[in-house]
Amino acid sequence: MNPTDPLLKILACPIDKGPLSLLPDGNALYNPRLHRRYPIVDGVPQLLPSSGEQLDETEHRRLTSP
Fold this sequence. Notes:
With 66 residues, the chain is of the alpha+beta class. The chain is 12% helix and 24% strand.
């Protein structure tokens, strides 16, 4: 998945239904509100609540810092 993929505009977090951000490596989507990362496997986002990984505050800051 790449940053210009139109699918990114319609994908939403399965828990809070809010928007997701593509991480710089392109291998995961991130919900900064809940600090959850969802993997992208073979180009397919894994958006089941159980697929999400809870990140700690340190990792959250690393991902969201400019």
